[in-house]
């Protein structure tokens, strides 16, 4: 195998590593490799990550439960997962849910088993970009609801929900693998998880607006708008901004309009949204405290 040497900066030289070798060694941008000089030869070895494998016996054919199991192992950082089915599910559906994970591919399929492998390599500096994308897609959902209300296109909302699940799992996997954020990694894990729950709540609201004719109210509009404020607070990473939003949501929890809402569907969504944002801003406060203390 031959590779051309490419000039890089002043005195630097670069060669491309074979894609297959990089994947087999579970390497990616930012990872280290060992280089041994021997006369006019160089030996490159990929020892950056020990690959984790999982051999699992699946005793259900419930496709949603199967996705939850795969998601759990994917987020934990397993590189290869072999699924052995006691009750063989619809393999087309299984392949469809595998496609909802970033970098996960089927490498072997038999009559009652499936082996999937992650070719995903996410540098730690990309984790922040993934979280920002989650905020942006969630804001897209709320903007769609605000603009159309009972005429909201649920296909757009459903597509956004699928993308958010993909981003959540991708982000949590990267946090776990890189032990990202150190002592606050648990807070960051819960922060990302809660953000996805908020998007799922907005998805449920859009569905119920159409099915149960929920009317727009000032407080419901205010609750929907909380995602914009949380996004601004996230970008600022400022303790005072996070604290102000946390106090505002605390007032919303005590607002008499919340307890006196007559539409049971609107009341349910208000309670869910306010409580989820209370959880999100609590994590924001912890994360901002850590940044302020550095």
Q: Can you give a write-up of this model?
A:
The chain is α+β, with helices and mostly antiparallel strands. It folds into 3 domains: 6-45; 53-118, Translation Initiation Factor IF3; 124-293, Methane Monooxygenase Hydroxylase, Chain G, domain 1. The protein has 11 helices and 8 strands. It has helices at residues 19-24, 63-76, 91-98, 127-148, 154-178, 185-212, 218-224, 226-236, 239-254, 256-259, 264-293; strands at 6-8, 12-14, 34-38, 41-45, 53-58, 80-85, 104-109, 113-118. The strands form 3 sheets. A 4-stranded mixed beta sheet has the order 5-6-8-7, covered by helices on one side. The protein has a two-stranded antiparallel ribbon with strand order 1-2. Strands 3-4 form a two-stranded antiparallel sheet. It is globular, with a radius of gyration of 23 Å. The N and C termini lie far apart (48 Å). The mean pLDDT is 89.
């Amino acid at each position: 195998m031959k590779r051309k040497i490419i000039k890089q900066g002043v005195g630097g030289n670069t060669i491309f590593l074979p894609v297959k070798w990089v994947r087999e060694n579970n390497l990616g941008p930012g990872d280290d490799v060992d280089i041994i000089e021997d006369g006019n030869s160089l030996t490159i070895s990929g020892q950056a990550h020990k690959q984790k494998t999982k051999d699992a016996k699946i005793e259900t054919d419930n496709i949603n439960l199967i996705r939850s199991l795969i998601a759990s192992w994917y987020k934990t950082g397993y590189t290869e997962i072999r699924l052995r089915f006691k009750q063989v599910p619809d393999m087309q559906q299984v392949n469809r849910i595998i496609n909802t994970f970033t970098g996960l591919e089927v490498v072997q399929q038999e009559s009652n088993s499936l082996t999937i492998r992650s070719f995903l390599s996410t540098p730690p500096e990309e984790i922040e970009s993934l979280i920002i994308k989650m905020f942006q897609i969630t804001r897209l959902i709320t903007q769609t609801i605000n603009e159309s209300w009972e005429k909201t296109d649920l296909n757009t909302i459903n597509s956004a929900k699928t993308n958010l699940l993909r981003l959540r799992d991708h982000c949590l996997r990267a946090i776990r693998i890189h032990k990202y954020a150190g002592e606050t990694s648990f807070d960051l894990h819960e922060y990302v998880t809660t953000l996805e729950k908020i998007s799922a709540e907005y998805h449920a609201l859009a569905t119920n607006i159409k099915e149960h004719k929920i009317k727009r109210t000032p407080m419901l509009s205010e609750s929907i708008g909380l995602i914009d404020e949380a996004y601004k607070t996230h970008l600022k990473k400022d303790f005072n901004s996070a604290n102000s939003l946390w106090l505002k949501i605390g007032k919303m929890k005590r607002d008499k309009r919340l307890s006196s809402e007559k539409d049971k569907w609107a009341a349910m969504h208000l309670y869910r949204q306010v409580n989820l944002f209370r959880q999100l801003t609590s994590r924001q406060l912890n994360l901002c405290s850590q940044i302020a203390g550095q």
